[in-house]
Specification:
Length: 328
């Protein structure tokens, strides 16, 4: 009973956290206005281009993943790696952060790749991606330092008055996001402790982590990494041109919001729902977009991009057994 309650809480808390933040952001929002913008005020040509780059980001991730598996003697189909990535993103909508595990399970089932070793390569990928986004963040902060300082001040992260701090709704949103991240880290620690009790599992993970040293074509790996993040950025940036009220924003503004949104999705909510909206809306307002338009932008863009994740996940689930039917 205790174990069931714990599992239930682990599933519900991310949803509750995201729902709480969305409630505070949209509690006085006119959803009918957003519906009008979605039907008549959205340029679907630009949105389609944005979605194309969203797909390509995941395709490049699948190709890069296969490259890190090769030094381990694993040569899964390219299409299986891409489909596994599609499925992993969709799975994370249901249970945040479960995608990394699910895609390893997909390759174990369809290509016979060691689950532990492939999990190690995923850890390596995450380390590389972390370094990449930190580099992007450093450059962006240097270029737009005043904007970040203003953002921190307005969200209650840097306020000289303790009373003002404790009465700021935005401060509590940041606080709950921070608590959510701590809960995620605690859950990961417990998970890793469990895996350490399984003989040989940690060694296999380590072998997967170290596979990066023996990647056959380093320039290609670097290209894939750059392509992934360029596609992620364009996936976000081109949505600015979908709406009249954001079309004037430049690349630097997009970089600031992209960085803010990327860190926001670390909070364990489904597809970053809530924290991502909070970060993008707050930063967009710093560039002169009014609160209503910023909220409409975040709601539509996040909704459409989440729908894309679902569609690609369904495609992956359908494609995997078809492509591998001869194995059955």
């Amino acid at each position: 009973m205790k174990k069931l309650l714990k599992k239930t809480l682990e599933l519900l808390l991310p949803i509750v956290l995201g729902g709480f933040i969305l409630y505070w952001i949209y509690k006085d929002f006119d959803f009918a206005e957003a519906g009008e913008v979605l039907r008549y005020g959205t340029d679907w040509g630009w949105m389609s281009l944005s979605l194309l780059f969203g797909i390509m980001a995941q395709v490049f991730r699948g190709w890069r993943w296969r490259q890190t598996l090769e030094p381990l003697g694993a040569f899964p189909k390219r299409s299986d790696c891409v489909s596994a990535v599609f499925v992993s993103y969709a799975a994370s909508l249901v249970i945040p952060r479960v995608g990394e595990v699910s895609r390893c399970g997909v390759l174990a089932r369809y290509d016979g790749v060691s689950f532990a070793k492939s999990l190690g390569t995923v850890v390596t990928e995450r380390l590389i991606d972390t370094l990449t986004i930190l580099l992007i963040t450093a450059v962006t902060v240097l270029l737009q330092m005043p904007v970040f300082v203003t953002f921190l001040q307005q969200t209650g992260t840097k306020i000289p008055s303790l009373l003002h701090l404790l009465t700021s709704v935005w401060f509590y949103i940041v606080l709950f996001c921070f608590i959510g991240v701590l809960m995620l880290l605690y859950a990961l620690r417990k998970t890793l402790f469990f895996y350490e009790t399984v003989k040989g599992f940690v060694l296999n993970i380590w072998e997967g982590v170290m596979s990066l040293r023996n990647v056959r074509d380093t320039p290609l790996f670097v290209f894939y990494t750059l392509a992934i993040w360029v596609c992620y950025f364009l996936h976000f940036y081109f949505t600015f041109y979908c709406f009249v009220f954001t079309a004037h924003l430049d690349v630097l503004a997009a970089l600031v919001m992209f960085v803010g949104g990327t860190f926001a999705v670390i909070v364990p909510t489904p597809n970053g729902a809530g924290p991502w909206h909070f970060a993008v809306i707050s930063m967009m307002m710093l560039y002169g977009v009014n609160a209503t338009d910023a909220a409409i932008f975040a709601l539509i863009v996040h909704g459409v991009q989440t729908f894309l994740v679902v569609v690609l996940g369904v495609y992956g689930l359908i494609a995997l057994p078809i492509v591998n039917r001869k194995r059955g």
